[in-house]
């Protein structure tokens, strides 16, 4: 027990060391973040307005700030001439904070300095790939409760990023590699209404996973291209993506879902068996899968 407790203490110290390093590297305690004359908190409010829009309620939710604290920060930005307030034209209960031209210039300056700071960090590290993977893992751990599932055009940039990541992983994990041109790659139209749907898991503007519902206009459809970033695995995103596709299938009047996978992906097989899929005989001539499953769509 003492050994276990010592290991836990060591892990806690590693986390606290990490926290101190990040605090120092990002200038969290500086009164002039990135040399622009404001602390980090106020700079984040400027970024949030420029990035998420002017709705004050949305800004508060995105930043997780107390209403009174955000109000003080916004009044300070108004005094600097960086924002103006207005009431929503459709809902008088909503208030907006719009960046002025001066405020937009500050947003652009912070953006450029932050990009430069990030580039310096990457250029100064010998293993940028490992560094980015670690950052992705940490960011996902901190933001796991804010991951959203969004319906998206499978040809959109975020969708294509997920699909290419999926293909790259199959290339690395399959003994014979993977060539999408040899696979039964679904047409985009089959994964869009009124035939199907395509979903992407998003975290603070970055895609973490995807899943497609491929329909052909009958009451049978397929689940295609289920992929979750390694940094987000184990958080239930694959089940959430599948659930969205099943809901869409029900809405489209689809009664049966099918999917295929490869035994080189044992975690996928385990997921399907755990979530109510039944193994069936081969139903297509795709050269890559060797396992085939089916599931009745829940009505209601």
UniProtKB/TrEMBL annotation:
Pfam families to which the protein is assigned, alphabetical: Acetyltransf_1, MarR_2
Listed SUPFAM superfamilies: Acyl-CoA N-acyltransferases (Nat) (SSF55729), Winged helix' DNA-binding domain (SSF46785)
Annotated CDD domains: NAT_SF (cd04301)
N-acetyltransferase domain sequence ranges: 147-298
GO MF annotation terms: acyltransferase activity, transferring groups other than amino-acyl groups; DNA-binding transcription factor activity
Keyword field: Acyltransferase, Transferase
InterPro entries documented for this protein: Acyl_CoA_acyltransferase, Bact_Acetyltransf, GNAT_dom, HTH_MarR-typ, WH-like_DNA-bd_sf, WH_DNA-bd_sf
Domain of life: Bacteria
Protein name: Acetyltransferase
Species of the source: Cognatishimia activa
């Amino acid at each position: 027990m003492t050994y276990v407790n010592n290991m836990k203490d060591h892990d806690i110290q590693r986390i606290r060391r990490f926290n101190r390093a990040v605090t120092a590297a990002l200038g969290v305690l500086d009164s002039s973040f990135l040399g622009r004359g404001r602390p980090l908190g106020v700079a984040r409010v400027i970024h949030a307005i420029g990035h998420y829009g002017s709705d004050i309620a949305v800004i508060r939710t995105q930043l997780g700030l107390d209403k009174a604290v955000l109000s003080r920060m916004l009044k300070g930005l108004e005094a600097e001439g960086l924002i103006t307030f207005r009431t929503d034209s459709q809902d008088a209960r909503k208030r907006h904070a719009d960046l002025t031209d001066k405020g937009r210039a500050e947003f652009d300056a912070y953006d450029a300095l932050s990009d430069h700071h990030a580039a310096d960090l990457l250029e100064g590290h010998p293993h940028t790939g490992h560094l980015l993977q670690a950052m992705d893992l940490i960011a996902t751990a901190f933001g796991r409760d804010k991951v959203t599932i969004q319906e998206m055009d499978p040809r959109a940039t975020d969708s294509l990023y997920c699909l290419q990541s999926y293909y790259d992983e199959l290339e690395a994990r399959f003994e014979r590699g993977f060539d999408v041109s040899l696979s039964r790659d679904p047409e985009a139209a089959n994964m869009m209404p009124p035939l199907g749907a395509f979903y992407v898991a998003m975290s603070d503007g970055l895609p973490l996973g995807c899943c497609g519902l491929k329909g052909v206009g009958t009451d049978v459809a397929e689940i295609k291209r289920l992929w979750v970033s390694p940094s987000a695995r184990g958080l239930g995103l694959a089940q959430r993506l599948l659930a969205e596709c099943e809901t869409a299938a029900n809405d489209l009047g689809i009664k049966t879902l099918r999917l295929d996978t490869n035994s080189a992906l044992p975690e996928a097989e385990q997921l399907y068996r755990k979530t109510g899929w039944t193994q069936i005989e081969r139903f297509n001539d795709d050269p890559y899968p060797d396992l085939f499953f089916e599931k009745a769509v829940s009505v209601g």
